[in-house]
Amino acid sequence: MLQTSWTGLTVAIVLLLFLLICSALISGSEVAYFSLVPSDLHHLAQEGSVNSRRILHLKEKPRILLATILIGNNFVNIAIVILSDIVIGELFGRETFIRWAEHLSTWVILQDFSITALSFAIEFSLTVVGATFLLVLFGEVAPKIYANINNLRMARIMATPLVVLRSIFSPISNILVKWSNWFEQKLGSDMHRNRSMKDDLDKAIELTVSHEINSEKEIDILKSIVKFGEVTTKQIMRSRVDVIAIDIQSTFKEVMETVNASGYSRIPVYNEDFDDIKGILYVKDLLIYLDEKEDFDWQKLVRSDIKYVPEAKKIKELLTEFQLERTHMAIVVDEFGGSAGIVTLEDVMEEVIGDIRDEFDDAIEVDFEQLDAFNYVFEGKTLLNDMCRVMGIDTDTFDKIKGGSDSIAGLVLELMGRIPKRNTEFKYKAYRFKINGVNTKRIEKVQVTLPQEPVN
After folding, report:
1. Which domains does the chain possess?
2. What is the per-residue pLDDT across 286-317, written as a single tens digit (0 to 9) for each?
3. What value, to the nearest 5°, has the Cα angle with vertex 59 and ends 53 and 64?
4. d(C-alpha 427, C-alpha 409), whole Å
5. Any residues with CB less than 8 A from the CB of 350 and at least 6 apart, and which?
């Protein structure tokens, strides 16, 4: 009898370990598959192996894939909890729980409970704590950390099992996906309605204004007003590598040379590094000191009332703050608190009405070369919004693939996952990109070819 009991316990423990491994693999596959970037998928497509094709096939229907993973994981976890209860019961024995219950029943707050109820509560608590510990550590945290680091390897390991599981759970998966779509339509109706309203407004603008003479500029302005509330500061700011700034240790002669060369009316002042901004120098404050000597203490003119804004701030809110605070420039900070660049009131206004040029502005704000009607060459640092405006296409054309990038170089890195070699070419829809210039640190020149037919 004892031999039979130990045999059953051994089988239960082995089966429990097997299910924990299954839970770990299924949980890890969720992170592995949904962390694959476009460059990974491109690599798999070029590889052409059976597993690669299976991975790409599974990624074609991400909702079905997610439903399959969640259903499989839940079944396995339920089985783990049941087996954990059996193993704990066999290891400790029912008599042990009864003795513990008899001891607890002497406590005043537990005297109203029966021995049977207390023993069941103890066993249940041990099962919950034990199963939760095993599932969280070995079935969730550890495999997901591994999968996040080795997503392609984990995806290959789980390609065949997930194809099998998808076939088995397809009836349940299809029902869950349909339900989730229905709930999404109900709960997300406001979002869809807003999007639909914006699309309708764009169409109405084109229909209303397009028949007028020289209407293209007016159409662009009206569309920019519609999208104004969605644009972030990061999308319009001037990156720190392009900012003209003055070191606070500079001499007065160096300051005047920078002022004369830049033509700006406000210049940030930093100490050693642009992350340490000391203030803003207003050029008008220098006017009465133009004849001062090189040792003039110009630092006393620096205004320390600096406005900082996060990259994610909407420019609609930023414009309101500029108006209320009567300021024209702000330092943009990234998520780590470093200085990402600057944004001015002029940048915000240009987002609506287009480029504002004065006598100090260069003839060309965006550095590009038009080769012919369909080919343009841009600097890698050019903002996507500026590129779209120059080429005469919608500014949201690349929103689905750009991720967190705002420049052409960022878009290329987002799609390829690496710094490409010179003359590398790739396509998105009917738009063709060619890398014309690159160094070890960044992408310098990108040639963009427009489609010769309209793109939906």
Report:
1. 2-187 (no CATH), 191-227 (no CATH), 231-320 (3.10.580.10), 368-449 (3.30.465.10)
2. 888 888 888 888 989 999 888 899 888 888 88
3. 125
4. 15
5. 236, 356
Is the CB of residue 87 less than 8 Å from the CB of residue 80? Answer: no
What is the separation, in whole angstroms, between the first and last Cα of the chain?
74
pTM: 0.45
Using CA atoms, how far apart are residues 191 and 185, in angstroms rounded to an integer? 9
Q: 143-177 pLDDT, tens per residue?
A: 888 888 888 888 888 888 888 988 888 888 888 88
Rounded to 10 degrees, the C-alpha dihedral 365/423/432/375 comes to: 50
- Looking at beta carbons, which pairs linking 410-414 to residues 24 or more positions away fall under 8 Å? 411/384, 412/380, 412/443, 412/446, 413/443, 414/37, 414/38
In angstroms, rounded to a whole number, what is the distance separating the alpha carbons of residues 335 and 318? 18
> Which two structure tokens, joined as six digits, stand for 443?
């992408």
Q: CA of 111: how far to CAs of 98, 100, 120, 154, in Å? A: 15, 14, 15, 53
Backbone angles phi, psi at 401, to 5 degrees: -115, -10
Q: How many CB atoms lie within 10 A of CB 182?
A: 10
- What are phi and psi for residue 389, nearest 5 degrees? -65, -40
Q: Which of these, 307, 328, 306, 318, lies nearest to 232 by C-alpha position?
A: 318
